[in-house]
């Protein structure tokens, strides 16, 4: 159980909040590369409670600007993208990717107004078929070279999930909640075990589990009755590596979360797509109606991710942790909260938190994906191959 103050501290993501300042020390994926095209070169993005516009110029530069125009506040996501940048749809103020105002069509020659404008702009990088943004203080660190993202002996595909309509921490706590797998997902993740009781699901096949802090986060390790061992490291703060994929949770704002999965497929397992692009598998909505919250919507239960979304969203827009009653199997949840609080304090002390890498040429980080896959050949985890569409 947390106090209301502790719950606020760990969940809120806006600029100037403790967790918001921590999360601003990391790069976050904000869109797939496929989300921007010649026909749709600009896209509205909300991340960490900030309203932004992502755009790509005809010469291939990608920018991320505050969506609200510096002039009189119209949305730049309706703007015109041209060679030099993005022009506001209202009066045409033109911004480059660094936020400089290059032109004000209605000003007379010699006007200095444009020179005085410095519009909010954030750096963008492209990696593994995603655009990543950094909203924190300069200098920006490197995107961590986790094996799933950085290995070059294979290729990537993405799974883009529907928007999650609740706070990001509910999804992260789930990453270190080992008990739920055996109950919530009992019909879909059987691992060959026969379900004998719907209340207990497959949990009697879980002999024991361990939660262990390590260099990059928390390792969740499960031991099954047939001898299999499964490891899923949580890579602090917002990533779960599960077999050959990472599930990445990006706070949109306090009560919405963007979730995308990056999969690595070794060349030895599957040939690369011929066009060299990163395929994206967009999941259909998990609930109907799409834009409603519990109890005014109904979730599907025929997909693991849909079941998780049901659990996380029905906990509430921001789970009230003053009213929870934790049990022994929640020790991973407690460990993650303590880790989060500790790393928040580091930022407040002016230190770099866990997994901020200053050297862009640091070595690829082995999260033991191969070992996990080796274990998977026995059946408990396996490569997630892209669905044939
Ligand atoms: S509001 Fe954007 S140019 Fe006027
Ligand atoms: Fe789950």
Indicate the low-confidence ranges by residue numbers: none
Distance between the termini: 45 Å
Estimate what percentage of residues fall within beta strands. 25-35%
Shape: globular
Instruction: Tell how many strands the DSSP assignment holds.
Output: 21
How much is the radius of gyration in Å? Answer: 22 Å
Listing every helix as H and every strand as E from the N terminus to the C terminus, the arrangement reads HHEEEEEEEEHEEEHEHHEEEEEEEEEHHH
Average pLDDT over all residues = 94
Bound molecules: FE2/S2 (inorganic) cluster, fe (ii) ion
Instruction: Give the count of helical stretches.
Output: 9
Roughly what percent helix? 10-25%
Largest sheet: 8 strands, mixed
Side-by-side strand order of the widest sheet: 13-14-15-16-17-18-12-19
**Structural class of the helices, strands and pairings?**
alpha+beta
Commentary on this structure:
By secondary structure, the chain is α+β, with helices and mostly antiparallel strands. The protein is globular. Helices cover 19% and strands 28% of the residues. The protein contains 9 helices and 21 strands. The strands form 5 sheets. Strands 13-14-15-16-17-18-12-19 form an 8-stranded mixed sheet. It has a 4-stranded antiparallel sheet with strand order 2-3-4-9, with no helix packed on it. Strand 14 (217-224) and strand 15 form a beta hairpin. Helix 5 crosses helix 8 (331-348). It has helices spanning 4-11, 18-23, 113-116, 147-150, 168-175, 179-184, 304-314, 331-348, 369-376, and strands at residues 27-32, 42-47, 50-56, 62-66, 80-82, 85-87, 94-95, 101-103, 121-122, 124-127, 130-134, 154-160, 206-214, 217-224, 229-235, 239-242, 245-253, 256-266, 280-282, 287-288, 298-299. It binds FE2/S2 (inorganic) cluster and fe (ii) ion (FE2). The site of FE2/S2 (inorganic) cluster (FES) has 10 residues, from loops.
């Amino acid at each position: 159980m947390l106090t209301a103050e502790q719950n606020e501290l760990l969940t809120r993501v806006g600029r100037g909040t403790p967790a918001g300042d921590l999360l601003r020390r990391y790069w976050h994926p904000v869109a797939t590369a496929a989300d921007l095209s010649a026909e749709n070169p600009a896209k509205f993005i909300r991340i960490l409670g900030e309203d932004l516009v992502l755009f790509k110029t005809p010469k291939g530069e990608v920018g991320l600007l505050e969506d609200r125009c510096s002039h009189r506040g119209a949305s730049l996501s309706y703007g015109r993208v041209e060679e030099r940048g993005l022009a506001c749809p209202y009066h045409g103020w033109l911004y480059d990717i660094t936020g400089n105002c290059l032109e004000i069509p209605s000003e007379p020659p010699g006007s200095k107004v444009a020179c005085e404008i410095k519009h909010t702009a954030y750096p963008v990088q492209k990696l593994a078929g995603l655009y990543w943004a950094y909203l924190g203080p300069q200098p920006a660190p490197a995107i961590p070279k986790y094996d799933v993202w950085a290995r070059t002996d294979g290729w990537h595909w993405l799974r883009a999930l529907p928007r999650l309509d609740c706070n990001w921490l509910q999804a992260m706590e789930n990453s270190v909640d080992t008990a739920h797998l055996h109950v919530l997902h009992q019909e879909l993740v059987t691992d060959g075990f026969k379900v004998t009781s719907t209340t207990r699901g497959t949990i009697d096949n879980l002999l024991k589990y361990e939660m262990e802090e390590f260099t990059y986060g928390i390792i969740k390790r499960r031991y099954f009755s047939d001898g299999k061992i499964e490891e899923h490291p949580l890579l602090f703060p917002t990533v779960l590596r599960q077999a050959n994929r990472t599930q990445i949770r990006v706070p949109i704002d306090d009560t919405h979360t963007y979730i995308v999965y990056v999969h690595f497929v070794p060349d030895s397992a599957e040939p690369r797509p011929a066009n060299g692009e990163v395929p994206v598998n967009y999941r259909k909505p998990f609930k109907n109606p799409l834009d409603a919250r519990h109890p005014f919507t109904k979730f599907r239960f025929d997909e693991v991710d849909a079941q998780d979304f049901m659990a996380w969203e029905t906990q509430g827009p921001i789970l009230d942790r003053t009213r929870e009653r934790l049990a022994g199997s929640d020790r991973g949840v407690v460990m993650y909260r303590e880790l989060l609080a500790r790393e928040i304090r580091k930022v407040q002390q002016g230190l770099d938190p866990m997994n901020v890498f200053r050297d862009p040429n640091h070595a690829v980080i082995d999260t033991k994906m191969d070992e996990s896959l080796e274990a998977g050949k026995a059946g408990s985890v396996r490569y997630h191959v892209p669905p044939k569409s």
